[in-house]
Amino acid sequence: MNSHVTLLVFFKTVFIVHACPVYLTLSTNSLIQKESTLTVNWGPDCNNQNIPAKIRIYSKNPYLYETPSLEEITPDNKNFGKVETNLKLGEIKFPRKWNINDQFEENIDYESDSYCLNFFILSFNHTNHVISFNCMKINPQWMTKNKELWLFPLKQLVIPGTHCSGCYMTTSNMRRRNWKNLEIFQQRFNVWQQLVLGIRYLDFSVGYFRSFHETLDIKGRFWVFNENHEITPIFSILEDILHFCELSKEIVIINFSNFVYGFHEGSGAHEIFKKLLQNTFGHIAVINMQNGKLSSDLTIQQLKTASKYVLILYNYNDLNIFNEQKETILWPQWNHNQINITENVANISTRFSEKIKSADMVNEGWILEIISKKSLKDIDNNFFIQMLNESLVNVISLNFAFLTNIIDISLNINNQRALSRQNFITIDF
Ligand SMILES: *[C@@H]1O[C@H](CO)[C@@H](O)[C@H](O)[C@H]1NC(C)=O
Ligand SMILES: *[C@@H]1O[C@H](CO)[C@@H](O)[C@H](O)[C@H]1NC(C)=O
Ligand SMILES: *[C@@H]1O[C@H](CO)[C@@H](O)[C@H](O)[C@H]1NC(C)=O
Ligand SMILES: *[C@@H]1O[C@H](CO)[C@@H](O)[C@H](O)[C@H]1NC(C)=O
Ligand SMILES: *[C@@H]1O[C@H](CO)[C@@H](O)[C@H](O)[C@H]1NC(C)=O
Fold it and tell me: What start and end residues bound the annotated signal peptide (predicted)?
């Protein structure tokens, strides 16, 4: 690909951004993924010229099949808004290669970039002409396929992430016991699905059961926690991440953010966990030479060239507990800012600007973690688009991530950043 082709790709993206964006998100009204309903959103850029007259949802691609719409929404000249529908997401199936157990042939490029999950939306103008098309898309290889991004250090990209990445209900943990606090389930997609959809930063609170699960294999002793509730064993999630990275050659950042149970001094838990990480990810984890280099300065290109696809951030103030003089696969934390959206949403942008002023974001990677409550429906794409576009936020990590179209937003902003820094776009492939 030469750089002319690259620019055309950008113009296409910019054009889409300037149309009145219409997209689908997932409500949090059910703990079960397939029971969760869809929300239709439009905005924020819409103006009198481009606010759609109607938005319609279909269960089949209306360009390919003649099919009646399932629901019709009238934006009523509002320049942004959202309407919850009664349509349930249903079972999702990815295209061939991207389902976790798919067999496929290595050397065939299974086209999947524009693959839509279950539903399609079209918007129409007042004379009933289609003005936009959208769906919930998968983005299994956005880093690999957007070579314009390869020369950017990680700290200059927007990396969409989930907070409490392992906190979702599965059929088996539904049966396992009577959950008292259902608010601990803060995601609706499992980690594999999150990665296929485009998430590239994951965080986990981990607990270690020593005596309680004494008979268990080491692998069964580490659990995902949310605060003090254990949710599910972590090992199979780690295997899924490994499998995804090997398949996609994308770069995934994992933050082991808290060690909430069983990691007390003398427990040996950190050492055992580190060994488990080493055995699982040793061959594809980025190596920290402990020479003062920041992991946020690495570029996608450097990582891919070295065949390193997992960056493990380990939130332990003293990585030297492991007595390592040099190489380790664990990296120290990035800057971190948290906004707790339980507060009045109207004040978030003020708080956000204050955070930005106080954070030294230009020279280091930083994570914005947004915590919200299920009951609070106002996590708004308009907010993200403006905030992310105007700042240099690096990782954005969300619970209830798919209440927003965080992935599209991140990818658009990355393209805009690439476009405005053309000196980075110097490679011809
Ligand atoms: C709707 O879009 C069509 C096709 O672009 C255009 O010809 C028509 O004038 C538009 N109608 C209105 C009311 O803007
Ligand atoms: C990971 O998350 C924790 C807690 O959310 C945060 O304090 C920390 O800065 C993050 N750590 C890394 C290693 O990025
Ligand atoms: C967020 O704020 C609410 C209300 O102030 C508080 O109850 C909650 O514990 C906070 N959550 C976090 C993770 O800080
Ligand atoms: C939000 O902002 C308004 C006015 O700007 C202020 O009166 C109110 O106290 C703020 N609320 C919080 C929770 O900071
Ligand atoms: C992002 O900011 C640029 C320049 O400030 C602006 O031209 C563009 O429209 C903004 N994009 C979005 C999606 O808001």
Answer: 1-19
What's the topology of domain 142-424?
TIM Barrel (3.20.20)
Structural domain boundaries in the chain: 3-137, 142-424
Among 127, 128, 133, the mutation site with the greatest number of ligand 1 atoms within 8 A of its Cβ is 127
Residues having CB closer than 6 A to ligand 3 are 340, 342, 371
Q: Are 398 and 161 in contact (CB under 8 A)?
A: yes
pTM for this model (two decimals): 0.85
- Residue 112: its pLDDT value, please? 72
Task: List pLDDT tens digits, range 357-381.
Answer: 665 544 555 566 666 554 445 556 6
Q: Which residues are paired to 73 by β-bridges?
A: 55
Q: What is the residue with the minimal CA distance to atom 2 of ligand 4?
A: 347
Ligand lying closest to the C-alpha of residue 123: 1
pLDDT at position 6 over 50: no
Distance 386 CA to ligand 5 centre (A): 8
